[in-house]
Amino acid sequence: xxxxxxxxxxxxxxxxxxxxxxxxxxxxxxxxxxxxxxxxxxxxxxxxxxxxxxxxxxxxxxxxxxxxxxxxxxxxxxxxxxxxxxxxxxxxxxxxxxxxxxxxxxxxxxxxxxxxxxxxxxxxxxxxxxxxxxxxxxxxxxxxxxxxxxx
Length: 151
What we know:
By secondary structure, this protein is of the alpha+beta class. It is 17% helix and 43% strand. The chain has an 8-stranded antiparallel beta barrel.
């Protein structure tokens, strides 16, 4: 009986190891959010307009997780001509629809914080984000408010 229990335990351990290996291989494409074991990060970068400097070099990294998981971000803003950099981190939320476009996908930074700390970026294709104003409206300007995916 002890020998049977030992064989059963070894078999269960081998099956568990094989299941873990197969699960990781099946979800190895973390960009689409299918890999729950390893978080992948996608980074967007660009120079956004600045009222009192030469521009804000902005690098936004988004952790890609399954839809119901908590999503984290890292943001680094470097003010050109002032040699000041402001890193921040937090969570983000994916919203669907904005007042001007009900089919839009919007990334809301800091949904759990004061409205002054929240930022909105609309997804424009697979490789670009466009900054929106506090009311989730497009910013009416000839200036560039886009961040492009870093390869």
